[in-house]
Design goal:
Layout: H1 9-53, H2 58-81, H3 85-91, H4 95-107, H5 117-131, H6 136-146, H7 166-185, H8 203-229
């Protein structure tokens, strides 16, 4: 007669210990997943808050800067190969794209010159902003250094958070010198003629006589000549 094998207390204890270790392992896995989800949620909240603080045209500017950096690298490659960058660039433009670009250029209004001070200031602002070349590496480095103070808010003073580089100061001085030189060429200040006849008693009277000469000089030229010769009747 075959003897039946019965499980003793040691076998049941082993099963209970194994079940308990499995539960602890699953609990640890759940805690790790919860911590990972909490970190991902926090990172997403920070990224969303950062996106809200960005300007509306941030993405467009970023794409523009990436395109300019790519074009600068292509230009360096062309210079290294001894090729003409403008020629290589035009070879990559299709006929339909060139036609669309020509139509777009025709729609732009030409510069009508000085209209008012507001338009002149706006044109100068556009010209100065187009000259700014953003460096993505320095941009990311400065954003990491400043942290939350990188984006301006109502409490931002902007006096001690950052310091302009020497290159930026030199560019500003160079641009100001160009503006001063350009304005000096278009100055309407008239030189003083020392040999001209003095027919005024002060500066206000001189301006008044100049206005009279400008508007009535051609009508009173003969009378003035007669008075100077002493032949006036």
């Amino acid at each position: 007669m075959a003897s039946e094998v019965k499980s003793g207390p040691s076998t049941s204890g082993t099963n209970m210990a194994s079940s308990k270790s499995d539960k602890l392992k699953r609990l640890r896995d759940l805690e790790l997943k919860m911590n990972e989800a909490r970190k991902m949620n926090h990172a997403e909240v920070v990224a969303e808050d950062e996106r809200k603080k960005r300007p509306q045209n941030f993405e467009a500017k970023r794409k523009r800067l990436e395109w300019e950096q790519e074009q600068a690298e292509k230009k360096k490659e062309c210079v290294a190969k001894g090729e003409n960058y403008d020629r290589v660039k035009l070879l990559e433009v299709g006929a339909d794209e060139a036609e669309r670009w020509e139509r777009k250029k025709k729609k732009k209004n030409p510069d009508t010159g000085f209209a008012d001070y507001e338009q002149a200031t706006f044109r100068q602002y556009q010209r100065l902003t187009k000259q700014i070349q953003q460096d993505p590496k320095n941009y990311e480095k400065e954003r990491e250094q400043l942290g939350d103070d990188f984006y301006a808010s109502a409490d931002t003073l902007g006096l001690h958070q950052r310091k302009d580089s020497e290159d930026a100061i030199d560019r500003m001085v160079t641009d100001l010198e160009k503006q001063i030189d350009k304005r000096s060429k278009y100055s309407r200040r008239r030189t003083f003629d020392e040999e001209a006849d003095i027919d005024y008693i002060n500066e206000r009277n001189m301006k008044f006589n100049q206005k009279l000469e400008r508007f009535y000089g051609k009508y009173t030229a003969e009378i003035k000549q007669n008075l100077e010769r002493g032949t006036a009747v």
